[in-house]
């Protein structure tokens, strides 16, 4: 309850102070606005750059996974081709023996 009362009193004093010192408030606001814009822009650039790096990293990881999958398929195809070659050689040997 005391926190609520203190908050109400602070809000009332803040409103009264803003009314009496409105011109000073505008001077502070005019001085702080360029700083806020600069810091906000710098933060946006940093976040955007970080997002681009994340996308590049994800794309590289996806390409590595695709490459690994392709290598596995190639190895499987080589093993199958070798198995077919061995079977063909066996059939040729059987035909020569007959």
Would you mind describing this structure in some detail?
The chain has one domain. With 98 residues, the chain is mostly helical. Helices cover 97% and strands 0% of the residues. The protein has two helices and no strands.
Backbone structural class: mainly alpha
Question: Mean of residue pLDDT?
Answer: 92
Shape: rod-shaped
The major sheet is characterized as: none
Number of domains: 1
As residue ranges, the low-confidence spans are: none
Rg over CA atoms, rounded to whole Å, is 37 Å
Q: What's the tally of helices?
A: 2
Query: How would you describe the oligomerization state of the chains in this entry?
Result: single chain
What's the count of strands?
A: 0
Please sum up the structure shown.
The chain is mostly helical and 98 residues long.
How does the SSE layout of this entry go?
Blueprint: H1 2-20, H2 22-97
Using brief descriptors, characterize the structure shown.
mainly alpha, 97% helix
